[in-house]
Amino acid sequence: MRRGAVRSVVVAGLLVLAGAGPAGAWAGPEADVAYHGRVSLVQGRLKVWMVPQNEGPSGLANATVRVRLSADLADAQELAAGCARAGAREVVCETGPLPEHGRGRHIGLVLALRERPAEVAVRIDTWWNGGAADRNHGNDEHVVLALDTGDAYAF
User: Among candidates 148, 146, 72, which has minimal Cα distance to 114?
Assistant: First the structure.
């Protein structure tokens, strides 16, 4: 019985050191990255405009936002600086520096789609968080349904 108790304490200690322990065990930087913006769809062209921001408590030198679509991108794309195609339906963009309680650079994308769908689901999330912990994903994970009406849908 005593050996089992010691073994449990050792395993729990290793999990805390590995970052799998209770909240507060992570000793690295923490930042709350958020994205706010809008999307619109017009005749096979999807427009995405967003501003990344950081609610703190630590600043970040850079992060990467991922935009995933329910429709295929056209082969030819002209992407904004700092953005790259990451798959048939995916684009990633660097945010630039995100100061503590500050905003990053505005990101604007005009994405040509392979076909002209009546609607596109757009998923926006953080792909890389600069090595910081983010305990609040409610403001950096969005799903927006854009209808081919030209209307802007906010997130």
Answer: 72
Is the pLDDT at 33 greater than 50? The verdict is yes
Work out the end-to-end distance of the chain between its first and last CA atoms, rounded to an integer number of angstroms: 54
Answer positive or negative: Cα dihedral of 10, 14, 16, 17: positive
| Structure confidence at residue 27 (pLDDT) | 59
**Residues near 40 by Cβ (< 8 Å), separated by ≥ 6?**
46, 47, 146, 150, 151, 152, 153
Largest CA-CA distance found in the chain, in angstroms, rounded: 70
Q: Quick one: what percent of the chain has pLDDT higher than 90?
A: 81
pTM for the full model?
Answer: 0.81
Please provide residue 87's backbone torsions phi and psi, each rounded to the nearest 5 degrees.
Answer: 165, -175
| Whether 103 contacts 35, CB under 8 Å | no
| Residue of 32, 42, 12, 44 whose CA lies nearest to 133 | 32
CA distance 86 to 91: 5
DSSP three-state, residue 104: coil
